[in-house]
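Data availability (excerpt). The following record was deposited with the supplementary files.
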Amino acid sequence: MQVAVLVSGGVDSSVALALLKQQGHAVTAFYLKIWLEDELSYLGICPWQEDLSYVQAVCAQLEVPLQIVSLQKEYFDHVVAHTIAQVKAGRTPNPDILCNSRIKFGMFVEYMQTLPHTYDAIASGHYAQVALVDGIAQLYRAPDEIKDQTYFLSYLTQQQLAKLLFPIGHLRKEQVRELAEQFDLPNKIRKDSQGICFLGKLKFSDFIKHYLGERPGDLIEYETGAVLGRHNGFWYYTIGQRQGIGLSGGPWYVVAKDTQRNEIFISRTYHDHDKQRNELTIAECNWIAGVASRDGNYLVKLRHGPQMHHAHVQMVDGGSFKITLANHDQGIASGQFAVIYDGQICIGAGIIV
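Predicted structure:
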């Protein structure tokens, strides 16, 4: 096949590229440049330059053509601006999910349609699997529960999934590392990137400070109403957060936020019965098969990682769904995505309201 491969400079996408070429496909690598230099100038670094150097080295070794695609304005308009607005409203967005649905497999697909060359498929180094079942593209979890990235792909549509290949989705991370050694890739010992995809090495708090600044307010003990300290703005905190509160006598947890009064409520007894949380409502749902989920029992992820909840999902009204978890989760926060699974199949996702 003629395959367009999205590469990032990391080991996963590089191994995906090498595997496709080994299998005999005609591959072209595409590196998406999404950051505007002036958006990073306040930190004095350009993290994409190191990534691109690895991409170029890998493509040169594998003798694969490389195209650099600039989607900076699209990225800012469709991911960064939305993230800033959500944080300012007191919610906890997930820009990675938006990056996949709106940019990597959204705007990039539109860009490909302008090229004189036609590609049969788009590939990436995600840990996930796609299979056609009765003509419907199904998104399956990867066997590596820790690396599984179906959470981040849960907002993709049928049209997007149908053309996707995930060459390493059936592998575990250690197997991918072994393949990188076998291929002797230039980035074979490069560490995995941590944190949010669109920030790379940057701290989310630095990113937020650049756009929203600081607004001092009170840290209040949830049980007593006592003011225990000060914070620099409610947008730096999310429900369930433990790190960064900066008070002794803890551990302290964020249990509530008042965005109008710029107050953060904290507690040392976060897991007590009066603060247990096991219900949430989701809206703006994306159902991968194109049909809304039936009421019933499913598995639910509230964040990337191996933890999954047994849950009951029920439609309420206007396309909203109520989710009741079998166990409690103290980190439920509005703006986050809840992703729903029927066994190994990721069937869709919605935004917690």
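Summary of structural features: The first strand starts at residue 2 and ends at 6.
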